[in-house]
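Write out the 3D structure for:
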Amino acid sequence: IPIGQKDLINKQAFRFWNRTIDRAVEEKAKAIVLEIDTPGGLAFDTRDIVTDKLSKVDLPLISWVKREALSAGALIAFSTERIHMSEGTTIGSAGIINGTGQEIEKVTRAKLESAFEASFRPVLKKRGHRLDVLQAMMFVDEDEERSFGSVTVRKGGLLNLTASEAVEVVDGKPLLAAGVMNSLEEVLKIEKLDEFEVIRPKPTGFEAFAWWVAAISPLLIALGLGAAYLEFKAPGFGLFGFISLSIFAVFFFGNSVAGNLAGYELMAMFLLGVALIVLEIFVLPGLVAGIVGAMLVMGSLWLAMADRV
């Protein structure tokens, strides 16, 4: 299962992985290999798939760091039994950050870090990884340096291991990674899986379409509203009206397939809002219908993009 550069910031990818893992279990796969190359992504979604899905898989679960496993990517790797890394790759720097770029308040950060550590402790115990390594990757220590074999984490820093450092033997076992493997074929061979067929799951056509629509939903809204505005400025119903309705049809359908709240109810809410705006412009001027209609339109568009869960 490839976990690429932008996958961990895409909620649709998490749904796809959940279904793929279920399929692997149902079809009695010999093992699941996660091919990781990511700078990170959504913290809570990553925690949930690790604790609710990956940590409960009874199949052999292996990760191969193809280029980098940073932040949430490192957390994914910790959920597997064995970690292999390509030469020159890195893993770590898993501190929690605010998606807005603002500094997280001290007490809030302490609560988040405590909750995440508690969630991952059973996972690490089951998979046999060192808790202190994960802690050094996630939590900053402003007072003391921390040492892991030949690697020293400076005060105020986070642990990030190269492939050669991750396989260093400390206290009788590798610090983190089981070996340095430069290709998936090498990983499969060392894991005695090279005689089996390798299946690389891909999203279906509708899933890929839904991912695309969900990713550009704000642009679709802007284009749809722009076309609607041009239609209102022109007499009768014409080309821009058709374009606007087509764009919003794609918007609602795509977000519905993607598993967001978009559905018949929100589409009806949207159309009711449009009808009230038209009523305000052409029949009953007086602001009330237009304001209510605008609120319904914007509310339905915003809710349509919200994750169903």
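The longest strand covers residues 61-70.
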